[in-house]
Structures are given as C-alpha cells and as structure tokens.
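User: Predict the full complex structure for these chains.
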Amino acid sequence: EIVMTQSPLSLPVTPGEPASISCRSNQSLLHVNGHTYLDWYLQRPGQSPQLLTYRGSNRASGVPDRFSGSGSGTDFTLKISRVEAEDVGVYYCMQALQSPWTFGQGTRVEIK
Amino acid sequence: QVQLRQWGAGLLKPSETLSLTCAASDGSFSGYYCIWIRQSPKKGLEWIGEIHHSGSTNYNPSLKSRVTMSVDTSKNQFSLKVNSVTAADTAVYYCARGHSTSGLDSWGQGTPVTVSS
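Assistant: Here is the predicted structure of the two-chain assembly.
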C-alpha cells in the first residue's frame, strides 16, 4: 500500500501569519488520466474530518481561499495564507489513487 | 451540504459482529460511493472500504475477510458489518460520501465503537 508521510507533526502558528504542511508519498500519485489523487482534510477538535482540497489543488465547496493545495508526483503542500483561530485542528493528506486509500499521520495545528 | 447520519451499536464483546448504517439527509448517494473509515489512536485514519450505489464494493485487504458492505437502495441506506471483532477493532467509525476524483465531501458524525469483554 502507498505510505503517506506528513511533516511537521505539530505546527504552532500565529494568527495572520502563513502556514505550510508537507505530505510525501512513497509512489507517484499521478493517474494515467493526468489527475493527481491527493486530498487534504481538516479535523477540528471533536468533529469529523472535512474536505479542504481534492485532486491536489482543487478547493472544495465552501472552503476559504486562504487554503491552497499544490504539488505533484510524490510531493505535496497545503498552505494557509493567513491563519485564523478557526483553523486549529489536525490536517491529514490522503491518497485515493490506489486501494487501499491511505492517510498521513496528521499535522496538529495550534495557535501560539 | 449533504448531512450524513450514521447509527449502530457502540459496545460489543469480542467475537460479535459490528453493524453500522449510514444515510444521507437528502438521499443523494446516487453516482457516489459510500466510504467507511475508522479512526483509532494507534492506527490513525484507516480506510475500511467503499460501496457504490450500484452495489459494487472494494475492501481493504487487511479487513477483507471480515467486512461486508451493502446498500438498501429503497431506503438509500448503506451498511457496514465487521464480524469476529476484537479489541483491535475499537475505534470511531465514519461513513463518508465521495469518489476518488472528488474527495470525501460529506462525513457522518462518527460512531465510537468499543470492543470489550
């Protein structure tokens, strides 16, 4: 199965400042159809995960434009342009290229 | 946004069968998969498998021998069964709606399941 590795595992952030989370896979997530099957999710405390971006860089409906996903092949990044207090929680990357779909370990974002 | 509601027994004894059901508030699973995922402190988020509205399934090989997913199209409900549970199956179980090409755009509220004698 594809192994997903995130860094850092903990990220203290200052409101208004940018933040960045890295996700690496041990195989390319590029499908033969040209799409990259990498999603980002945020799990706020006490809540279910919610979709932020899909297929690498497509923002999900209702997600603020301060969130952006980028990357290709095996290296991906989620960026928050200006962190807000509501952005605290655990961020996960997930690959949906190959069954079984697999998740990263999670990156805990907290306010300094 | 579509609301998913899930329900089922939360406390099981070893060797029993875990049984959960998931339904969308507006019945809108057509064209999508219902994906089951579980979350535990030890293993994090784990993909259990997926079932299409048509009934086709795909299971995680690590659980395949014990998992059955089904759909009741008349009720627009999806079900998960895991038999012969052990303490290692203790987790919060989620259903989610989605597709590999569009992500998991709606999630159930999660059902904590504890396996204990």
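The two ends of chain B are 39 Å apart (CA to CA).
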